Amino acid sequence: MSKKGDFGAVKKDIEALMHQPEYDDGSAGPVLVRLAWHSAGTYDAETDTGGSNGAGMRYEAEGGDPANAGLQHARVFLEPVKAKHPWITYADLWTLAGVVAIQQMGGPTIPWQGGRTDYVDDSKIPPRGRLPDGALGADHLRFIFGRMGFSDQEIVCLSGAHNLGRCHSDRSGFDGAWVNNPTRFSNQYFRLLLSLQWRKKKLSNGIEQFVNFDDDTGTELMMLPTDIALTQDPIFRQWVIKYADDKELFFKDFSSVFSKLIELGIQRDENGHITNIDNEKGGYHS
Ligand code: DDH
What we know:
Layout: H1 7-17, H2 29-40, H3 60-63, H4 71-84, H5 90-104, H6 138-148, H7 152-159, E1 166-167, E2 176-177, H8 188-195, E3 199-202, E4 208-214, E5 219-223, H9 225-232, H10 234-245, H11 247-262
Helix pairs in contact: 1-5, 2-4, 2-5, 7-10, 8-10, 9-10, 10-11
Bound molecules: ligand 1.
Ligand 1 is lined by residues 30-31, 33-34, 37, 70, 132, 134, 141, 158-159, 161-162, 164-168, 171-172, 174, 224, 226, 258.
């Protein structure tokens, strides 16, 4: 057991569990990033509901949302870390794990601050349906991410997380990876969006996605309809081109926008202490 507030010790233990030879591409990283994103991506600015505070995915209302299928793997990976550092809240642990995973897979350092609580305020439970649907297009992306307060540029930048991981037919129904090395964070996703020919493919479950088959290597890569929409909408496309051309710009912008994502719904004072969450209800300030 570490000293209360020793987030460095927690980080070390998250890093140590990243290598998972039996799981997916040998890494827990991508699914940990998705856990952090889905924990935060329920936020609605207008009603100030949802967001990473409260770690609501532990409960059926949010955890059982079909959009969160498969994220139990990420939560199970983190259980030993929680057991070893029982003072950390799940809300902090999940967001921290996403940040640590991105960095360990070669991505940018992302500013992270603790203090989230595991207290679930019933009036703040997000309804299902707040996370994006990969079968839709540009209007849907603006609707979902606009609700959280993200701009067109930020939508494209955040989507660059699809450099990581894969779709699983038993989770979302989509199938395959976006890039050849899905455990290495880079801007390859943007480059492939522009450089490869993507054709529509109907899977045996009836779901449509886009694929590219490379005859030389025998590998098939995939894109969701929402990914392809980024190349078809003229404003989104400009940012896809920018991020494909300039990896450093992508890393810099991704660092700030992911940090913004995991802070949605959280207000802090100048010392970083959260001011809009009742600390008596399970919070912990470092
Ligand atoms: Fe995503 N994502 N995501 N995504 N996502 C999936 C996997 C992963 C959408 C749909 C899917 C973001 C945005 C979007 C990651 C990170 C991020 C899967 C496959 C679907 C479907 C799930 C499965 O079958 O296991 C859609 C739609 C959007 C959008 O509209 C923009 C964002 C913003 C992030 C982020 O992290 C900032 C990661 C990582 C994965 C890989 C997970 C894994 O298990 O591997």
